Amino acid sequence: MTWLRALVAGGISLFLPGAGHALIRDWIRALVFGGLFIGAAVVFLPTGEIAAADSVSDSMTAVANETDTITQFLFSFIALFAAIDATFRGLGFPPGSNTNADGEGGPSCPECGKELDEDLTFCHWCTTRLEPAADAETEAETDANPK
Prior knowledge:
The chain contains 7 helices and no strands. It is mainly α. The radius of gyration is 22 Å and the shape is elongated.
C-alpha cells in the first residue's frame, strides 16, 4: 500500500475514528474504533442538550460548554490513537500481520503485503496485478537453462 493512502487513512481517522481503517479494509479495527468513539459520545456528551438544540450551531455550543477537560482529552486520545494505528496499518506494520490463524503465512501481495487467494490473478486488497506462479517458474527455468 502506498504511503499516500496510509496518510489519507490516518487523516480521515482524526475526524472520524474507524473511517481510516475502513479505507484500508481493516474491517474489525474499523468497527472497534468506530464503536469506541460512538460509545464514548453516548456516555460522555450531553445528549439531552444536543437533542434540545434548535440548530447545529446551538448543539456545538452546548457540547463546548458542557464537556470538561477529561472528556475532551478522551475524544482527542481516541481520534489520535485511531489515526496513528490506521497510518501504521496502512504502511504494513506490523510486518507479520498477514499470517493465518495457525501461524503459517500464505501467499502475500508484493505491494500491500496482505494475504492473497491463490486462484486470483490480482490482489483483492489493492488491485495489483499478479504474475501467475507457473509463468514465473517457467521463466526462472528458462533463464537458468538458456538454449
